[in-house]
UniProtKB/TrEMBL annotation:
It comes from the Eukaryota. It comes from Magallana gigas (Pacific oyster). Residues 43-132 form the DUF8117 domain. This is DUF8117 domain-containing protein.
Length: 136
């Protein structure tokens, strides 16, 4: 497997929208993902998630949607703990499912601003489209 240099300033690696075409490609090449996930190893994926979080805090989606809410900060912390437990230390099937869930969340990210909403009609994880995302 090709060695990938990780940097939290790498816009080519981290600052890409999840396009429908890329997701379809991923869906059709699950075996290639399995090989990559295993061959890169746990150490690489730990470094990857640390670098990804740094990038998203400095340049990416976390910076874009940050609203200085304690609930939002807790949500982000829990999300990266979940990433570590299920993607880095989990099995390949969980890692694949996680990527599927990321695609669903990306399609609904405009709803994140309603995380503090008292209304069930606005709360992102009550809505049908995102209700079962990341329920393992």
């Amino acid at each position: 497997m090709k060695k990938i240099r990780l940097s939290d300033t790498d816009f080519d690696l981290f600052d890409m929208e999840i396009s429908p075409g890329e997701f379809i490609f991923f869906s059709k090449h699950k075996e290639a993902f399995r090989c990559m996930w295993k061959e890169q190893g746990v150490t690489f994926w730990k470094k990857f998630t640390i670098t990804f979080r740094s990038f998203t805090n400095r340049h990416g989606v976390i910076k874009e949607i940050s609203n200085n809410s304690p609930k939002f900060e807790d949500f982000i912390d829990q999300a990266f703990i979940f990433i570590h437990e299920n993607f880095v230390e989990g099995r390949e099937g969980k890692a694949r499912s996680f990527i599927d869930d990321i695609a669903k969340l990306a399609q609904n990210r405009e709803r994140f601003k309603d995380l503090d909403s008292k209304s069930f009609g606005k709360y992102p994880f009550y809505l049908r489209d995102t209700r079962y995302v990341m329920c393992y």
